[in-house]
């Protein structure tokens, strides 16, 4: 009986692994990027030209992947990053410290599609493209050097902050008393949108920034596309 249960469990695990979605990572930047990923993937190091992959179970919700820069970790995986740090560890268990260019996804299951986007709501640190492989669905690109063009009041070491993070007011953060119907784009969000039209530029930028693809698609994320 025990051996039969072990066989069934192994079979179910094998089926789940087969159904997993692969997110391919490629670093085309001239510098090292340390991808952080939650709730699946943790963290890794990608030198220029290197590739990696993350296996994500179907149905995974609120997935996030971002690039960290200026990192230094010891043999135990403890250290820090100049941008995108996730609590001083290589294997992230929480989101990165903004500003970060953020790839977000929720994988469908059954008849539900995948949802994915690139978000600049928390600012920008590394150029990025993100989307399904195979060309059947839209790939998002945010390849502009926003750091070099960042307004002086939003500039931080290694990145470009959002106006919400910088000023913390309802106008920029879409917090009460503002609502989705009364909080619109600002000059600062238009700056980000102008350089990366497909990316989220503020909290309610859904209509032009959220994309879908049939369930089961693999994905490609490229730093400095």
What does this molecule look like?
This protein has about 220 residues and is α+β, with helices and mostly antiparallel strands. It has one domain (about 20-225): Thaumatin (Sandwich). Helices cover about 20% and strands about 25% of the residues. It is built from 5 helices and 15 strands. Strand 8 and strand 9 form a beta hairpin. It is globular. The relative contact order is 0.18. This is Thaumatin-like protein. Belongs to the thaumatin family. Keywords: Antimicrobial, Disulfide bond, Fungicide, Plant defense, Signal. InterPro entries: Osmotin/thaumatin-like_sf (IPR037176), Thaumatin (IPR001938), Thaumatin_CS (IPR017949).
Indicate the CATH class. Mainly Beta
Low-pLDDT windows of residues: 4-17
- The order of strands across the largest sheet is 3-2-5-8-9-14
Largest sheet: 6 strands, antiparallel
| Helix-strand topology string | HEEEEEEEEEEEHEEHHHEE
Structural class: alpha+beta
CATH architecture: Sandwich
**Percent helix:** 10-25%
Family: Belongs to the thaumatin family.
Keywords: Antimicrobial, Disulfide bond, Fungicide, Plant defense, Signal
Organism: Triticum aestivum (Wheat)
InterPro entries: Osmotin/thaumatin-like_sf (IPR037176), Thaumatin (IPR001938), Thaumatin_CS (IPR017949)
């Amino acid at each position: 009986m025990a051996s039969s249960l072990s066989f069934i469990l192994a079979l179910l695990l094998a089926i789940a692994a087969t159904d997993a979605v692969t997110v391919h990572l490629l670093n085309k930047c001239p510098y090292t990027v340390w991808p952080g990923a939650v709730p699946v993937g943790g963290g890794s190091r990608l030198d220029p030209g290197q590739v990696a992959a993350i296996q994500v179970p179907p149905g995974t919700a609120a997935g996030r992947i971002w690039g960290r820069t200026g990192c230094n970790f010891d043999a135990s995986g403890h250290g820090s990053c100049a941008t995108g740090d996730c609590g001083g560890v290589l294997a992230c268990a929480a989101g990165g410290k903004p500003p970060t260019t953020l790839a977000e996804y929720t994988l469908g299951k059954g008849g539900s599609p995948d949802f994915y986007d690139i978000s600049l709501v928390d600012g920008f640190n590394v150029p990025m493209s993100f989307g399904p492989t195979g060309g059947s669905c839209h790939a998002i690109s945010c390849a502009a050097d926003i750091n070099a063009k960042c307004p002086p009041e939003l500039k931080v070491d290694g990145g470009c902050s959002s106006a919400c993070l910088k000023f913390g007011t309802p106008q920029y953060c879409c917090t009460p008393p503002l609502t989705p119907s009364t909080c619109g784009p600002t000059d600062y969000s238009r700056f980000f949108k102008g350089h990366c039209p497909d990316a989220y530029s503020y909290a309610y930028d859904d209509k032009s920034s959220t994309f879908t693809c049939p369930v089961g698609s693999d994905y490609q994320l490229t730093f400095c596309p």
